[in-house]
Amino acid sequence: MATGTSGTERTIGQLVADATHDIEGIVRGEIALAKAEVTDGAKVLGKGAGLLAGAAFLLLMGVVFLLHSAAWGIAEWLPVWAGYLIVAVVVLIVATVLALLGRKALQNARPAPERAIDQAQQTIAVIKNTGSEPAAAGTGTTTTSAAGSTTGSSATAATVTKTPTT
């Protein structure tokens, strides 16, 4: 018995084309959703940054008025110029201490990803040595991570040292 096919059945090529078109539509929709979420997030971040900038400006103005008041308070016992001089010296001392602490922190900072660079260099060395002798030439040992890949050293994976028998 032959099963009758109506003329409305679609070919595999048409089904693949439709599936591709549907996937493109889904991807475009996801991208549009991501753009909308990022735009909304950026608007909220912009508003928050503006409010923080306004608060920082008002805080700065408040500190200026407090320092001015301190200078006038000192002027009750000393001349006005001496009060301002004392306040200015204290502010400069605090600024110097903060600058020295910031400089020390910047000197101790390591912005370069040294561990990642070291690991990349080790990976390159292992890849170069894959077809030839093991990385530890002369010792006859190869270090293999728990996942089975050969590495020079791995701080995150358990290592097993294999010594070939001759």
Can you give a write-up of this model?
The protein is mainly α and 166 residues long. The chain has two domains: 12-108; 116-162, no CATH class. The chain contains three helices and two strands. It has helices at 12-74, 80-108, 114-129, and strands at residues 142-145, 159-162. The chain has a two-stranded antiparallel ribbon with strand order 1-2. The longest helix has 63 residues, at 12-74. It is elongated. The relative contact order is 0.04.
Main attributes of the structure:
65% helix, 2 domains, 5% strand, mainly alpha, two-stranded antiparallel sheet, 166 residues
Largest sheet: 2 strands, antiparallel
Task: Compute the average pLDDT.
Answer: 77
State the order of secondary-structure elements, H for helix, E for strand.
HHHEE
Derived structural class: mainly alpha
**Helicity range:** 55-70%
User: Which outline best applies?
Assistant: elongated
Calculate Rg over CA atoms: 35 Å
Report the portion of residues in β strands.
under 5%
